[in-house]
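Exercise 7. Given the encoded structure of a 350-residue chain, write a plausible sequence.
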């Protein structure tokens, strides 16, 4: 039995495998446990193994690379068009096997252990930040029911809450004071966890040379720099900076037909977490745009004069993403853009 490509539909405990011969016909359909799958592929020689990029796919991809196979991970949305009929695990595996052989199929690079560690830290930190916001909003809501309001901003709520709880004349009942005290303790614990995560991220950024080059870019700090490196590594899977910006969803969505180009809002595809970090970084740069390099400051001034602030922020986030890709891919330090002046013509002597 000669196999050319293999598609594996991943699960938690069971894995469905479909192998295609060089003519593209289904030659084998098998169901394995995790250990059985590792033993089966260890004694197999095929041109390429395909899997969808999902939970556990990077571990399985690395283990099969160690066996000498070429492994390709693909986004699930690009595999779906190859499903020809009703959905089941074998049909999904067959679609994966057919899609992985396409020459223009987009491939997800297999992440290293260091990248997965950084990505895990970012995911846990992001959940803690969201939980902290939820706790503060609940404190605001409970206090508002008793006629107590806080100034806008997380730090104002954290600073005012102890005074509110210590005030005996604000009409708060004993049970509510106890609940607010518990929420305050939960908030302090979350803040301690977030601070520890920030410290670990800062340490990782300081020890990583690509992260140090990224942090020289305006609007990119340790959090964004480590998140970029954890997601794309050196950026070699993207041909140019625009492809990276497209992957982040920072380019216009297009709905063109009949030769008429129609551009809509940004596509918002790809990595939502990275896109949010770049947009927040761009807003921070906009707040102090006069302190940026002459070229960037002049570009922002022209853009702010003719577009809404939100549009400018997204355009700047797109620009920062392209710069970040260039710094990573080329291995060069960031060079601030300079202001290009157009020379005026010298009048002829009379």
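Solution.
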């Amino acid at each position: 039995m000669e196999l050319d490509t293999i598609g594996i539909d991943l699960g938690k405990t069971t894995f469905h495998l479909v192998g295609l011969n060089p003519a593209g016909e289904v030659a084998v359909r098998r169901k394995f446990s995790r250990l059985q799958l590792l033993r089966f592929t260890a004694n197999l020689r095929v041109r390429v193994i395909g899997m969808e990029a999902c939970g556990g796919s990077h571990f399985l991809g690395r283990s099969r690379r160690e066996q000498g196979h070429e492994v390709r991970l693909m986004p699930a949305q690009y595999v779906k068009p190859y499903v020809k009929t009703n959905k089941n695990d074998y049909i999904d595996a067959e679609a994966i096997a057919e899609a992985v052989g396409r020459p223009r199929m987009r491939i997800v690079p297999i992440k290293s252990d260091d990248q997965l560690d950084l990505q895990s830290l970012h995911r846990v930190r992001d959940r803690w930040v969201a939980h902290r916001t939820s706790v503060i909003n609940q404190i605001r809501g409970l206090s508002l029911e008793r006629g107590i309001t806080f100034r806008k901003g997380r730090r104002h709520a954290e600073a005012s809450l102890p005074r509110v709880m210590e005030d005996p004349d604000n009409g708060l009942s004993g049970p509510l004071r106890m609940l607010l005290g518990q929420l305050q303790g939960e908030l302090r614990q979350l803040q301690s966890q977030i601070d520890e995560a920030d410290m670990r991220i800062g340490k990782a950024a300081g020890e990583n040379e690509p992260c140090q080059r990224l942090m020289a870019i305006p609007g990119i700090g340790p959090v964004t720099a480590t998140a970029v490196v954890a997601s794309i590594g050196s950026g070699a899977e993207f041909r140019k900076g625009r492809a990276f910006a497209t992957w982040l969803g920072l380019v216009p969505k297009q709905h063109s037909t009949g030769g008429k180009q129609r551009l809509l809002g940004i596509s918002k595809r790809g990595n939502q977490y990275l896109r949010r970090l770049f947009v927040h970084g761009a807003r921070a740069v906009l707040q102090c745009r006069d302190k940026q390099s002459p070229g960037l400051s002049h570009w922002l001034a022209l853009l702010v004069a003719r577009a809404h602030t939100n549009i400018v922020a997204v355009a700047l986030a797109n620009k920062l993403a392209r710069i970040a890709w260039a710094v990573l891919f080329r291995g060069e330090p960031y060079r601030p853009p300079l202001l290009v002046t157009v020379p005026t013509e010298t009048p002829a002597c009379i």
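Remark. Residues 113-207 form one domain. Students should compare their own answers with the one above.
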